[in-house]
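quick one, two chains, predict together pls
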Amino acid sequence: MAVYTEVADDELHAFMAGYDLGNVLSFKGIAEGVENTNYLIHTDAGPQILTLYEKRVSTKDLPFFLGLMEHLASSGLACPVPVRDREGQMLRELAGRPAAVISFLEGLWVRRPTTDHCAALGQTLAKLHIAGKNFAMNRANALSVTGWRPLYEASGNGADTIAGALHHELGEELDALEKGWPRDLPQGVIHADLFPDNVFFLGKEISGVIDFYFACNDALAYDIAICLNAWCFEPDAAFNITKARALLRAYTALRPFTEEELEALPILARGAAMRFLLTRIYDWLNTPAEALVRPKDPMEYVRKLRFHRGVGSARDYGLGE
Amino acid sequence: MAVYTEVADDELHAFMAGYDLGNVLSFKGIAEGVENTNYLIHTDAGPQILTLYEKRVSTKDLPFFLGLMEHLASSGLACPVPVRDREGQMLRELAGRPAAVISFLEGLWVRRPTTDHCAALGQTLAKLHIAGKNFAMNRANALSVTGWRPLYEASGNGADTIAGALHHELGEELDALEKGWPRDLPQGVIHADLFPDNVFFLGKEISGVIDFYFACNDALAYDIAICLNAWCFEPDAAFNITKARALLRAYTALRPFTEEELEALPILARGAAMRFLLTRIYDWLNTPAEALVRPKDPMEYVRKLRFHRGVGSARDYGLGE
């Protein structure tokens, strides 16, 4: 939620002269994106986002992220499109950082998603998975099951400062996930971070999906498990099965689940809760007090994880009855 | 440089329904404005700024600031115009804060102003002063000469942690300013904070002046003294007389100085340097490490103050020869 890298007006003019976007009419640093610096630029050719990639994003992954956005947009998914400069490049450098200009998407993200929003999300997620099928590049999911133990160990007993005996509880859960994690589910490109702030709506329609900087190849159903966590719980931690059913039905209408996916849904949901819980715990324990970004509350995901542990089958998510 | 107050999408929709601006297409918190929270909103009627006034701005002053912008804009000055809601109100409430929608101005602020930029500034400042003459409301300048001693005393010997014996040096300077401060100069509405980041350019033309939240009634020439400090020094602290001459000539071509103003220019410039030095010292000593806003370096204004103390007459600023 911050501008980490300041760009001067003359630097910006020189940079933007490389694009076929006409004059720069304004530029404002925007308080969005935890990882990168984003400017909203008004140009003669319309509004654009200028992103400067900060240290937490690995430079070698940028061609995957930008290429994926271009691929998905050309397949008809509403998402930002990297603008190529006059030499055909999507990725350049500005103020000592890798930088890209990306088309601006109108729309607002929804703080309190309704069942309608969840249904729209399910449909869009299925479209994303279908459109991603013939994308040629690959990127492993650094935050899948094999990435969790190092994160868990990095926080160690510190987790117990968040909730008593949490370190032990997560250790047992991690053992179970590593043992039971499904490995043969249908794979493809997943968004991997499709929280409400990454989905823009105009009215009840999705106007676009943003922030592909965690996208990777993994089990498609794992992406749905992330969305169940991010969209289908109420502020009081109650699971809203009506929203989950709407999401899952809209998704499976376009891409039906295999029997194995249906069966794996509860463990995938536990894994997804674990993944966000572990990064939240890490950030909670390691964000300096003077940081520009406030860490998110890990307890929200402790409660979600505990809910999923009590789930018997995909029926509990509103599917299959 | 921060979003202090978060606004949810449904709160925003409810608020914006009070205006005749059509649909809200997007809104982004922008990293501009140290005192207030600003959102850039795209609406069917074009881009707007939504400002939420935070604690440092006194609510009782808001009708003056908003009324002034409306007055200046209707007098032909390029500045943001407060948008009135369907009931004719400029000032409303959102998320527990006083809030206003203000027209968005295209343009970029210039990090390294040239002589041409300074000339354009002089002309615009004169227009602002002329347009302000028949504005009916009044607001005293809380940061004029009588406001400096309390600020000076609030920092006390802390100033010496910035430069050795600075507390003593400023005490002597303050005595001299209080004794010699001119009281009978032509008065009017001044901007009082016309730094480069408050002046937008499109090419060499000024597209607008923003941030009227220090505006007040005071000596018109004091506003020029602020600009001499803010626009006419180089990064190495050298005074650029060519820029000052361009600024002053462009200004006086539209509003000639009186003899008294010409004579007072050096002490006004010392006073303006003192005013920004004192608030910078205060902020330097009192900004907590975890603050979202980094304080500005006071030493820049120590050097400027020392320069003005060596000035003999307005001739040294490029005028009167």
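The two ends of chain B are 42 Å apart (CA to CA).
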